[in-house]
From TrEMBL:
Organism: Xiphophorus maculatus
Annotated protein name in UniProt: Contactin-associated protein-like 4
Places the protein is found: Membrane
Superkingdom of origin organism: Eukaryota
Signal peptide boundaries: 1-27
Matches recorded under Gene3D superfamilies: 2.60.120.1000, 2.60.120.200, Galactose-binding domain-like, Laminin
PROSITE patterns recorded: EGF_3, FA58C_1, FA58C_3, FIBRINOGEN_C_2, LAM_G_DOMAIN
One annotated Gene Ontology cellular component of this protein: membrane
Polar residues composition bias: residue spans: 1203-1212
Alphabetical keyword list: Disulfide bond, EGF-like domain, Membrane, Repeat, Signal, Transmembrane, Transmembrane helix
Record-annotated disulphide pairs: 929-956
Length: 1248
């Protein structure tokens, strides 16, 4: 982010220098001379004046002439003061003052500039602020320095607000310096051709610069023809400037569009264009905005054969010529306009090229809405011959009333309006529709569109843009004639006028060239209140703004707009928020794990809101580590096929992540590795007699560097793993394959030196000899340990803090972090500017507040929680501020938002240090832990800074209080320095969260016998095996749970016996009922408890839970109601001998009916079997060699105990980039996005 900020500042500085060069002033020139004080009274005009002593000529700064300044006849927002500077002048500042000795002064105002006294352009700060602060009394001077100098002849100031105890009163001054320029005018049929001299030396500038103004939205500005046939063109297309390249190989085809920049460039105002080339990089600047594109170096601005201005390079082309004015056309430092003026032989002109700028006057009116309207009287005679209305409009809105009028004679109303960006005509009478027409489409594109409404006897026509496809007509049975007046844009308020009621949206946009019965309407006369009436109109200007140029939508979000706001469509971008700034995905597999996710495919965004795109990886969450797995095109063992005439075999690997993604993953991971394996027969690998290797590989960033070591060895060693360990098949060599034997050998291991990863390509050298055979395998890139996610600091004093460089988030700023504390307040983060600031704090034990100021006054966004935040558990905060809104998210609570002012300041300008955990005043500091702090996608290294800061300690232990609930099924949370893991030793489940069932398919001959230890054996046992293998020998009651799936009945599920011939048996009887038998005294008969649930041998998965305490027994099947039983004898199962699952090997000692069931065995699925603290099935499957179990017959672990009854990955959900509704970023894995580790590209690989 910082780099981009530096780049923007660099571009801005270069543009500023070029601006000075184009405008005819040097960068060192002082441009602050007073421009108004010496002007004659005739240079001043105003909308009105209170008296002759309040005339506009008295409005000079610090003067006391007349009544001490200008005051209009009435104080309202329709007043203005205008100054004619005599010629185009560079204006750098404006100062205001109230009327001398009065209570009359302005508190805010607008500035307008013009070259001709018409077609005014409003000056805006930051492209959004349209008002300037005024005065607080009549005598003090308030000066405002323009951020970008304006060049104009006329200056107009429009009062917005004034002292409530007085009226409008003004004295002013403007500052600047003379502006000189060379101007040319083209009429659409004229052009200029410049033939540069010899190619200049390489140190010369490669730049074309100019200014232009036009009323036409299309036309070729210039074309630079290269000597080899290539060419660059700048042309207007729908008000945007396009840069096109015609390559040498495509002289007869259409040129290629390189970029498009700017918008609404047909507004008849001057626009700066700079085209600069540096090697293959082209920079195009339009006004204040720059884009860069890379091109082939076949075209050079040094080597231009022809520079054609105002026309296309092809005489027969259908492209329009340019019609308008050009100023200060410079080619590599040469003033082409001056050469043309002097009739230089290098310049030739065609048609009427003049050296002045003659401009047609098209007076426009802006309808800013929502109460804007224009009423014009209909003075044409009402005859049966018909009538017509014509005008042009431009808008961004899909809907709005264009005009309305009442019909003569029978009455009725006519409405001409926009709906869904189409032109519609409705005629109604008494609420009943008489006629409807529709024409045109997409009319909210910001372009000028002409509309003609024509009524003739028996025919009514509406036409859009004078095109056949934009015409609609009908034959009404009544005359369509205007009664006595016509309204444009809207209607007056209802309490003002009952003659016009608008059932449609008010029009917001611009209109011009109004004509009633082919008679033009003079809007200047309207402005003078001499014709018609209007409200909230801006006459003699079009105030349309393109809020999507440049677009504030980030990461490929699509920008759309209305007259007042823009909207970003973030679908398919992988980002969210009002400007598509914040990533919808987590930044690592570690983060997904701690949101409770299990292994699967996920989109991760390694730099959050930064420029790196989301990428799909496999997250392999194991008990020990969380691995991020990045695939490439060939991860399988691949046999080398030698090619005739080639001594080496080259293999390149294409990764499914882009370069910057790979670099970021490796950088932020604690450990990365990649398997590198070579299987060989008569194919040597590394060491030759002269020392150079037969084979090598390239690894690391970019295309990679040559590496001459193999998997399992150290960089630069030119060894394999066996050489490092000293166990190669030939002790004199350092690789097994270098022994050059006829038997198959292998050298393999992991590359774990991060600077060498990933493996980019292999070069295998010894594969051409007769009898040589080889195969290689390069595994996927695997990384674990997110250094950013666990980077933490502990603040143990209210006065302690960490400080970092100033945070640069001028247009978009996002902050995310975790915190935990026992305090009820504290500032997490603060950064100050001169007036601006940003702060996030815990304001109470249940509230977090995000506050900031970008120049519009302080704003706050807060989130209130229903639970305490000072509970010493981790809580997550995500705050974002952009040009549209600010948002704050706390944990998973609803997001709180605060909209930004539509036309307010947008740049956050900070200049102090960034304080973390405290403030510059050392008040209300935070006490507790902050972790994983990121600002605009960049992680701040809290631990490194904490090591050298008093009162702050690196790291922060204690994670189980927050994440322990992720451990399921009796799993136990175990603390780690960086995170936690779930200990599943007391659980019948396994997996990262003890959530994976341990299941097995049983055949009738399968038997698992678990032998309980005697007490003396347990005391002697010093094994570190989990306690789920050994059990309390004297249990007081039983806690039994398991799941089963079978179609067999009767069937014995579980049998537990003691050394005293006591037992517990769980079975399915012949009636498909679950039956529990207890024999707690060998002298008594077994007691039988039956569940009321039937049909359990139906092949479906059923879960059973049994609990006994003394004589009370409960049994629950699935989610059915628990059933309670009482035994007649409350004995104990003492000195347990064994627990058997499946067939009972020694069934002679059992009761006869149990013996028959035990001999039958069990066919089906058993899962998550648990008896008290013992998990016999888990012990048999996962610890068969170290557990007291005996397994007889076939035993196959499967997923039969899962509800899906499928492979472990079949339950993974699919989550795509386009899933932007609701669950985006929720951490759901992506199913089977890649079915295998291998993707074949071309014929790189032949499987062995």
């Amino acid at each position: 982010m910082d780099l981009r900020t530096i780049r923007v500042f660099g571009i801005t500085a270069r543009v500023a220098l070029l601006l000075c060069g184009v405008s005819g002033t040097s960068a060192q020139e002082v441009c602050d001379s007073a421009l108004v004080s010496n002007l004659p009274p005739s240079s001043f005009r105003s909308s009105s004046q209170l008296s002759s002593s309040h005339a506009p000529g008295f409005a000079k700064l610090n003067r006391r002439d007349g009544a001490g300044g200008w005051s209009p006849l009435s104080s309202d927002r329709y007043q203005w003061l205008q100054v004619d500077l005599g010629e185009r002048t560079k204006i750098t500042a404006v100062a205001t003052q109230g009327r001398y000795g009065s209570s009359d002064w302005l508190t805010s105002y607008q500035l307008m500039f013009s070259d001709t006294g018409h077609n005014w352009k409003q000056y805006r700060q930051e492209d959004s602020i349209g008002s300037f602060p005024g005065n607080s009394n009549a005598d003090s001077v308030v000066q405002y320095k323009l951020q970008q100098p304006a060049v104009a002849r006329f200056l107009r100031l429009i009062p917005l607000d004034w002292n409530s105890a007085g009226r409008i009163g003004l004295r002013l001054e403007a500052y600047g310096c003379p502006y000189t320029s060379d101007v040319m005018s083209f009429d659409g049929g004229s052009s200029l051709t410049y033939r540069p001299g010899p190619v200049p030396r390489q140190g010369s500038k490669q730049v074309i610069s100019l200014k232009f103004k036009t009323l036409r939205n299309s036309g070729t500005l210039l074309h630079a023809e290269g000597r080899e046939g290539s060419g660059l063109s700048l042309q207007l297309e729908r008000g945007k400037l396009q840069l096109l390249l015609r390559e040498v190989t495509s002289s007869f085809s259409e040129p290629r569009l390189l970029m498009s920049l700017g918008s609404l460039l047909d507004d008849q105002h001057w626009h700066l264009v700079i085209l600069r080339q540096r090697n293959s990089q082209l920079n195009l600047t339009v006004d204040k905005h720059t884009q860069t594109v890379q091109t082939a170096e076949e075209f050079s601005l040094w080597d231009v054969k022809l520079l054609i201005v105002g026309a296309s390079q092809n005489p027969g082309t259908t492209r329009k010529n340019f019609q308008g004015c050009l100023e200060n056309l410079m080619y590599n430092g040469v003033n082409v306009t001056e050469l043309a003026k002097n009739n230089d032989q290098q310049v030739s002109m065609k048609g009427n090229v003049t050296f002045s700028c003659t401009e047609p006057v098209h007076v426009a009116a802006t309808f800013p809405g929502p109460n804007s309207f224009l009423r014009l009287p209909w003075t044409m005679p009402s005859t049966s011959s018909g009538m017509s209305v014509g005008f042009q409009f431009r808008t961004w809105n899909k809907a709005g009333l264009l005009l309305t009028f009442d019909l003569t004679r029978q009455g009725g109303e006519v409405w001409l309006f926009l709906a869904e960006a189409r032109l519609r005509l409705h005629i109604q009478r008494g609420g009943r529709a008489l006629l409807e027409l529709s024409a045109g489409s997409g009319l909210n594109d910001g372009q000028w569109h002409s509309v003609d409404l024509t009524s003739r006897p028996g025919r009514l026509t509406i036409s859009v843009d004078k095109q056949e496809t934009g015409v609609a007509h009908t034959s009404p049975s009544f005359p369509v004639l205007v009664s006595n007046q016509i309204f444009f844009g809207g209607c007056p308020a209802e309490d003002y006028n009952q003659e016009c009621k608008n059932p449609h949206d008010t029009f917001q946009g611009c209109m011009r060239l109004l004509a009633l019965d082919n008679q033009p309407v003079d809007l200047i006369v309207v402005q003078q209140r001499l014709l018609g009436n209007y409200s909230q109109l801006q006459i003699d200007m079009c105030g349309i703004i393109d809020r999507c140029s440049p677009s504030h939508c980030e990461h490929g979000g699509l920008c759309s707009q209305t007259w007042t706001v823009f909207h970003c469509n973030c679908s398919d971008s992988g980002y969210s928020g009002a400007t598509c700034h914040s990533s919808a995905y987590e930044e690592s597999c570690e983060a997904y794990k701690h949101s409770g996710n299990t292994p699967g495919y996920f989109y991760i965004d390694v730099d959050g809101s930064g420029p790196i795109k989301p990428q799909l990886v496999y997250c392999n969450m194991t008990d020990e580590n969380t691995w991020m797995v990045v695939q490439h095109n060939n991860t399988e063992l691949t046999k080398v096929r030698s090619s005739p005439g080639e001594n080496q075999h080259l293999v390149h690997f294409d990764y499914m992540s882009e370069e910057e993604q790979l670099v970021a993953i490796i950088h932020q991971s604690e450990h990365c590795q990649q398997e590198l394996s070579y299987q060989c027969r008569k194919s040597r690998l590394l060491n030759t007699q002269e020392g150079s290797p037969f084979s090598w590989w390239l690894g690391g960033p970019g295309t990679g560097l040559v590496q001459t070591y193999w998997g399992g060895a150290h960089p630069g060693s030119q060894q394999c793993a066996c050489g490092l360990q000293g166990d190669c098949v030939d002790p004199q060599l350092y690789c097994n394959c270098d022994a050059d034997r006829m038997e198959w050998s292998e050298d393999s291991g992991f590359i774990s030196h991060k600077e060498s990863l990933p493996v980019r390509s292999l070069v295998l050298g010894d594969v051409q000899r007769p009898g040589s055979e080889a195969a290689y395998r390069v595994g996927s890139l695997q990384c674990h340990g997110d250094k950013n996610f666990w980077n933490a600091a502990f603040f143990d004093q209210e006065t302690s803090y960490l400080h970092f460089p100033t945070f640069h988030g001028e247009l978009s700023a996002d902050v995310s972090f975790f915190f935990k504390t026992t305090a009820s307040f504290g500032v997490f983060l603060e950064n100050l500017g001169i007036k601006d600031f940003i702060r996030i704090e815990l304001s109470s034990s249940t509230q977090v507040v995000f506050s900031f100021d970008v120049g519009n006054g302080p704003l706050e966004v807060s989130v209130e929680s229903s639970y305490p935040l000072n509970d010493d558990r981790w809580h997550r905060i995500r705050a974002e501020r952009n040009v549209k809104e600010a948002s704050l998210r706390l944990d998973d609570l609803p997001v709180a938002t605060q909209e930004a002012p539509a036309d307010g300041h947008i740049h956050l300008q900070l200049n102090s240090q960034l304080f973390i955990g405290g403030t510059a005043s050392r008040q209300r500091g935070f006490r507790g832990c902050i972790r994983a702090l990121q600002l605009n996608g960049i992680t701040l290294d809290l631990e490194e800074r904490a090591k050298i800061t008093p009162g702050v300690r690196p790291g922060c232990p204690g994670h189980c209080s927050s994440y322990g609930s992720l451990c399921q099924n009796q799993g136990r949370c175990v603390e780690r320095a960086a995170g936690f893991h779930c200990d599943c030793s007391l659980s019948a489940y396994t997996g990262v969260f003890c959530q994976t069932e341990v299941s097995a398919d049983f055949k009738s001959g399968t038997s698992i016998s678990y032998a309980f230890k005697e007490p003396d054996e347990l005391s002697r046992n010093s094994s570190d095996l989990p306690s789920s293998i050994y059990s309390d020998p004297l249990p007081r009651g039983e806690n039994v749970s398991l799941s089963f799936r079978t179609t067999q009945s009767p069937a014995l599920l579980l049998h537990v016996s003691s050394h005293f011939n006591e037992y517990l048996a769980l079975l399915i009887n012949r009636h498909d009922e679950l039956e529990l038998r207890y024999k707690l005294d060998s002298s008594r008969a077994a007691e039988v408890l039956r569940s009321s649930m039937r049909g359990l041998a139906n092949g479906l998965l059923h879960a059973v839970t049994i609990r006994r305490s003394a004589d009370s027994v409960s049994m629950q099947v699935d989610d059915n109601a628990r059933e309670d039983f009482n035994l007649s004898f409350a004995g104990e199962l003492g000195r347990l001998r064994s627990l058997v699952l499946g067939r009972v090997p020694d069934s002679d000692s059992l009761d006869p009916d149990l013996a028959r069931l035990g001999a039958l065995g069990f066919a089906g699925c058993l899962s998550v079997v648990r008896y008290n603290s013992v998990s016999p099935l888990k012990a048999a499957l996962l610890h068969p060699g170290t557990s007291p179990v005996v397994v007889l017959g076939p035993l196959v672990r499967s997923s039969c105990g899962s509800s899906a009854s499928a492979n472990p990955y079949s339950a993974e959900n699919t989550h795509h980039l386009s899933d932007q509704s609701g669950s985006v970023g929720s951490g759901q894995p992506l199913v089977n996005a890649m079915k295998s580790d291998s993707a074949l590209i071309g014929d790189i690989k032949n499987r062995k």
